[in-house]
Amino acid sequence: MNYDYQFQNDGNQNGGMPPVNLGGTPAKDGRSMAVASLVLSIVSVALLFFGCCCVNLIPAILAIVFAFVSKKRDGKMSVMAIVGLVIAIICLVFTLVLFGFAVYIGMELVNNPDGEIAKAMEKTLDGYFEQIYGMGFREFMDQYANESAVN
């Protein structure tokens, strides 16, 4: 087989091949940042769905940053960047609301251990412990405390 290709020499030094930029700056389009924003916002929603409440803040914040970097590079925000931005903001707000609710529940339990929330949680725990161990939460804890004291 003969692999000797003949290129037209049009006067440039590449032997007829198109010029190649090997040392230039990368393209300054914001499309890759818009795609990154959308992907990271979806990752943030998935992490929130699977219970990683604090971990999902990282991709949500990065998605917001990448959406604005995309706007800066293109001069306008593409649809992908807008969708990524909206999903990330919704996820961020939802995470902060959940975090605030958890802090409220924790403070309520500390400040009012005999209140309605504590009673509801104890009732729920009693149900779980009844199904798993055949005894309520208090009986289980008393038995565990007695076994720990003996050992």
What does the model show?
With 151 residues, the protein is mainly α. It folds into two domains: 29-111, no CATH class; 113-151, no CATH class. Helix content is 68%, strand content 0%. It is built from five helices and no strands. Helix 1 packs antiparallel against helix 2 (57-74) and helix 2 (57-74) packs antiparallel against helix 3. The protein is elongated and about 85 Å long.
In short:
The chain has 151 residues and is mainly alpha-helical.
List keywords for this structure.
151 residues; mainly alpha; 68% helix; elongated
Which H/E pattern describes the elements? HHHHH
* Terminal CA distance: 85 Å
Return Rg in Å. Answer: 30 Å
Uncertain residue segments: none
Binned, the helix content reads 55-70%
Write the layout of secondary structure elements.
Layout: H1 31-49, H2 57-74, H3 79-111, H4 116-133, H5 137-150
Helix pairs in contact: 1-2, 1-3, 2-3
